[in-house]
Every structure is written in C-alpha cells, then in structure tokens.
Write a structure and sequence with these properties.
alpha+beta, 3-stranded antiparallel β-sheet
Amino acid sequence: MPKLRTQPMKRLLLIAAVALGLSLLGKFLADAFLMRAVPLLGTFVTLEPVLNPGVAFGVRLPAGVQEFVILFALILVIALARSSARTRVQSAGFGLIIGGAAANLFDRVPDGVVTDFFQVGTFPVFNVADSCITVGVCLLLWDAVRRR
C-alpha cells in the first residue's frame, strides 16, 4: 500500500478502536450502575436504561433480516472506507461509523438487544455507539459539501 493510503487507514483504525472502546465502556457502565432514570438537566436530558431490540430509533425489522442488514451495512461501510478514506475528516468519519457499528453489534450478539441510555427531550433513547455513528455520518456529509 502506498504511503499516502497508509496514514488515513491507520488513523481510521485508531479512531474505530477508540469509538469501539468508549462505546462498550458506556454500555458496561450503564448495565452495571444505571438502574433507573437519572435526570441531568431536569427531565429534558436524562440517563435512562433501555434495552433496544431494534435498529436505529427502535425500528424493528423481521427476525433474521435485521441481523443481515446490520452486518451488510457494516461490511459496506468498511469497503467504502477502504476505497475512499483519504483525508483526516474522512478517516475520522468512517472510523467513528465503523467503531460505533461494531460496538452495537458486539452489544447485540449475546441477547439480541442493545443497551441505550441517553434521553434528550422526546428523541429516541440512544447510546455512545449511536452518537459515534451519527457524528461520523455528519463528518462525511460535511466533507462532501465542503469539497463541492
């Protein structure tokens, strides 16, 4: 691999590993210590343990299809990252998406659910991995708009 491609991939893998680690740490801390809703900013922002059997925003797909879609999406993002991550922003975006998705996948495997615990207003409850994925997508969109 040429040197130009090595740096973005190393950066991507480092960011993915950090996102994976922080996401799993958040999940384990929530599972271990969060037994009921804890208000942070009144009732607008709370830590609230929720077991989510669905995908994003609690959407549920038919059994078997959901796991296939999640795995296919992760493989697709990895393939896109390998072929197109060239800048720091792209590496960060893809790294956050891959790390967050992998964390949610690891969380889901043992019991079929993902631990969500951040509640903001009426938005669906989410976790650190979901935040990583969202920030990663926003970075990629920002980079695409900026390049145009």
